[in-house]
Amino acid sequence: MTARQKTLLLAVPINWASLWTTPIAQAAPHLKLAVHGRDAYDPGEIDYVVSFRPPPGLLKGFPKLQAVFSLGAGVDGFMADPDFPKHVPLVRFVHRSLSREMAQYIVLHVLTFHRQQRYFETAQAERKWRQTIPPRKTEDTRVGVLGLGEIGTMAAERLRDLDFPMLGWSRTRKDVKGVRSFAGLGELETFLSQSDILVCVLPLTSDTRHILNAKTFKMLPAGTYVINVARGGHLKEDDLIAAIDSGHLAGAALDVFETEPLPETSPLWAHPKISITPHIAALSDPQAMAQVAIDGIERLESGRPLVNVVDLARGY
Amino acid sequence: MTARQKTLLLAVPINWASLWTTPIAQAAPHLKLAVHGRDAYDPGEIDYVVSFRPPPGLLKGFPKLQAVFSLGAGVDGFMADPDFPKHVPLVRFVHRSLSREMAQYIVLHVLTFHRQQRYFETAQAERKWRQTIPPRKTEDTRVGVLGLGEIGTMAAERLRDLDFPMLGWSRTRKDVKGVRSFAGLGELETFLSQSDILVCVLPLTSDTRHILNAKTFKMLPAGTYVINVARGGHLKEDDLIAAIDSGHLAGAALDVFETEPLPETSPLWAHPKISITPHIAALSDPQAMAQVAIDGIERLESGRPLVNVVDLARGY
After folding, report:
1. Is B173 in CB contact (< 8 Å) with chain A?
2. What pLDDT shows up at residue A2?
3. Within this chain, do residues A131 and A259 fall inside the same structural domain, yes or no?
4. What is the pLDDT of residues B144-171, one digit of tens each?
5. Residue B18: partners with Cβ closer than 8 Å, 6 or more residues away
6. How far B21 CA sits from the closest chain A CA (Å)?
7. Is the pLDDT of residue B207 over 80?
8. How far is B293 from chain A (nearest CA, A)?
9. Does any CB of chain B come closer than 8 Å to the CB of residue A13?
10. What span, in angstroms and rounded, lies between the C-alpha atoms of A121 and A287?
11. Number of C-alpha atoms within 13 angstroms, CB side, residue B166?
12. Which of A34, A43, A139, A260 lies 20 to 30 angstroms, CA to CA, from B230?
């Protein structure tokens, strides 16, 4: 008698599915692979799920489910399902490739602002040679990172190595070389009051929803630039526009939005001081994702503990 | 009898002089400071000169001249003076602040290209949510740095830490962790053939003038992006435009030009695949410059050897 073949269900938008099916099939030819919405499958045979924002209620219908693997670092898409089966381990996607893509995005947008790249682009369009001294030295430009997990830490280290004075804020105190650590709500205002550029890479939980709002913006120094690469739910978009239009904030770079795709009618699109990208800071690398899921499955099958399992009470 | 007060001459464009006079006066109140073109001074009393592109022939008229300090890392502006007094040590400006500003510029423009930032800016202008997978993974995007001195090394290290595979080319072989070293003209083609993004930070000498030309562009892989932050004299601008327009090169970011300011009639300004900045990659920090010059003067006055003295035969 041979062991039953295990089945992995991929539950993603159908037009993206082909990105993952090949690397998963290559990395784990012993698994049966089904694509939700494309393949017929028996809910009773599903052992593992790989997904990002599964249809609410889907996961509770799999009695043999042993583990769920998130395609992204954030798992708010799973937390939003009131029927998420809380006895099943949910594994966050933690991989150097993801942290590095996020760090690249953050470094790019910090430098674009800090080095006045838009000013020079306008000068080029007008064929004008406009040399100018940077308004603030690198040594005087403090970058505050909200969230010092894998992603925030890597971004902070890369900016630190370009000589920006770095601050980080997180739930618990962290020890990252060259990054001043602030912890908990009690230290949020002190942290914000010293952030000339503010980067949000927090997980989205009930504690962090709308953490970027009119009140916290007032705690920032005048002229702060805001970068949100976490979730749209962290930011009150109307408050951001008001804080920029009042002259208090210098501008923003946003990769995530309350509603995605960002509606064509959003005032964010045409704001001259807001840079918009369509949630591309880090599209999870399919090979890396397959590797993480297969590693987790091998751990389960050999009786070793899973890593990067979400603490459902904490929300990340 | 007291020692004669030493005189430092600042020879820079008059409208920039005030940037340096204050920090120099603060760092070395015991020196007499004269500004060429503004103050009357006796050529026989000049002990030290701080300059960038001195008027040809100026320096040979100072019989007591003990050292010349360059305001920039490159000293081609001094080498261009046929009457440069070759017995006087010429000190390059080597300082972390300069290397880091250059590294920031290079990282910014590598990431702008690599992460398709222009594509997303166009999408924003059209209010379009255009998610797209990067055409080439970071791990597959090789960045070649021409010149592995202080600046090239720091830029290569920062890009290496963002996971780009790095190559460097220099006159002599270098040992920089994570950077494959190529040396001399014999290895130039091998180096170029593996550079998906090419960064030039070479000193401008008779050996490196016009090193970026139609012939070397042909050695690059199709689709290479070129970044020149060294000197305009490294690049044949017409060859660059032809190589981009033929489709062989993907585009370029240029901070330096054959003629500066770049003439309003230059075809570079309006080229859709060329990003122009007005020689601002690293404006030497006046405080740092004063510190370097004062340190050199103290070395001379206490009989210690100068550091970063230019090898006039080598040209840097």
Report:
1. no
2. 63
3. yes
4. 999 999 999 999 999 999 999 999 999 9
5. none
6. 16
7. yes
8. 20
9. no
10. 37
11. 28
12. A139
Q: What pLDDT is attached to residue B2?
A: 63
CA distances from A236 to A196, B30, B239, B306 (A): 19, 57, 49, 57
Interface ipTM: 0.95
Same domain, A105 and A242: yes
Q: State whether B156 and B246 are in the same domain.
A: yes
Mean pLDDT of A123-148: 95
Task: Say if residue B114 is in the same domain as residue B236.
Answer: yes
Q: Are residues A249 and A159 in the same domain?
A: yes
Interchain CB contacts (distance < 8 Å): A and B: 110
Q: Which of residues 257-276 of A touch B (CB under 8 A)?
A: 260-262, 264, 269-270, 275-276
Q: State how far residue B129 is from chain A, nearest Cα, in angstroms.
A: 6
The Cα A179–Cα A177 span in angstroms is: 6
Q: Is A271 a catalytic residue?
A: no
What range defines the domain where residue B18 resides? 7-95+284-301
Position B308 in a domain: no
Are residues A262 and A124 part of one domain? yes
The predicted pLDDT at position B170 comes to 97
Q: Cα–Cα distance between A257 and B42 in angstroms, integer?
A: 66
Respond yes or no: is residue A231 known to be catalytic: yes
| A1: in domain | no
Is-contact A107 A114, C-beta < 8 A?
Answer: no
